[in-house]
Amino acid sequence: MTVYQHITGADWRNIWVVGDLHGCYSLLEQKLAALEFDKQQDLLISVGDLTDRGSENIACLTLITEPWFRAIRGNHEEMMLDALLHHRDAGLWQMNGGEWFFRLDNADKSRVETLLPQVAALPLIIEVTANKGKYVVCHADYPGKHYQRDKPVDEESVVWSRERITSSQRGQIQAIEGADGFIFGHTPLPAPQQYANQFYIDTGAVFSGNLTLIPLQGGEMGMELANGSVKKTTFWQRLFG
Which of 154, 206, 144, 214 is nearest to 179 (CA)? Predict the structure, then answer.
């Protein structure tokens, strides 16, 4: 299993991170068009959970084959792999939105199954060294108080845990050292939420139509660091206040 992947910002013009897609391919395309996203120069990173619950699951899953797209593995990718690759608990996946696969015809099932090795190769953590800082993208959490690339982590916590955001919502907020910002999905929220240097961007697109994308690199819409803390420029101010 690939745990960490590193991305060098200098290889791209703009870098964006998108919240949980859950089969909302057309909505993503609308957002990218509005941002004038250039698939030749820009990069989009997904926080995971590409499929389930929405209606355009194959299109979203096929994104992992695109050169302008990167994704980490979410808990819905884990459930898919358990059901289809490891032949374990298909019932859990079906109860959590995976029933779409079992309604496909044989040709489309084969299309999905062909992609499973690439799904299995998705990293759990992506580190981005952008022009204004170092950012870490995980699905649910980065366990521990200090980030270090290639440090062993509890992989189940990275994919499933809501312990940190639950503590933060109760007022027990603590920064994670070792990077400037951490971007998570997994927990649907009415709006993007920031706690210390942690940014939660799953805004429940499949339920609300509200799909959040945030910039890590790209002109005045990116983040700047001021005195060791995140200084949000215009786009971030609109999202996080």
Answer: 144
Domains of the chain are 4-240 (3.60.21.10)
pLDDT, greater one: 227 or 209:
209
Rounded Cα distance, 71 and 123, in Å: 8
Which residues does residue 217 pair with via DSSP β-bridges, in sequence order?
Answer: 15
On whether the CB atoms of residues 20 and 51 are closer than 8 A, the answer is: no
Interval 117-153: pLDDT, tens? 999 999 999 999 998 899 999 999 999 999 999 999 9
Catalytic-labelled residue, pool 22, 76, 139, 186? 76
The DSSP bridge pattern shows strands 213-217 and 181-184 to be unpaired
The DSSP H or E segment spanning 25 is helix 25-34
pLDDT per residue as tens digits for the range 5-61: 999 999 999 999 999 999 999 999 999 999 999 999 999 999 999 999 999 999 999
For the chain, the 3-state helix, strand and coil shares in percent, each to the nearest 5, are 35, 20, 40
Q: Which residues have CB under 8 Å from 119's CB, separation 6+?
A: 61, 64, 73, 77, 80, 81, 85
Active site residue 22: no
* Neighbour tally for 11: CB within 10 Å: 9
Predicted pLDDT of residue 131: 84
**Structure tokens, 230:** 């995140």
Q: Where are the beta strands (DSSP E) in 100-237?
A: 125-130, 133-138, 181-184, 193-195, 198-200, 213-217, 223-226, 229-232
